[in-house]
Specification:
- With 100 residues, this protein is mainly alpha-helical.
- Helices cover 80% and strands 0% of the residues.
């Protein structure tokens, strides 16, 4: 009579072991999916930021390829003026400069 009970105990222990292994594997995979999902979200954020920068640079290229863009660039970076324009230079004097 002891033999059939022993078989059931061994069977139950085997099922319990397999269930424990499968649950552990399942939770490890859930953790891995969560990690991959957060990494994907970070990368998508970086990709969106780079894409926005790229679009802004393309817009700047288009603008500075026009005559208005070239004139603005000449005024801002090289202090050039067109004929008939007057260039004003504004100097700001701080109190520290006055004390010296």
């Amino acid at each position: 009579m002891g033999t059939p009970r022993l078989r059931w105990v061994i069977f139950a222990a085997g099922i319990t072991f397999l269930l424990a292994v499968m649950l552990t594997s399942f939770f490890k995979e859930l953790e891995r999916i969560d990690t991959l999902s957060s990494t994907l979200d970070e990368r998508m954020g970086e990709l969106i930021a780079v894409e926005r920068d790229s679009q802004e640079l393309e817009q700047n290229i288009e603008y500075y390829s026009t005559p208005e863009g070239i004139a603005r660039l000449a005024r801002e970076q090289f202090n050039l003026v067109q004929s008939g324009e007057v260039l004003y230079k504004i100097e700001i004097v701080s109190e520290d400069d006055l004390l010296q």
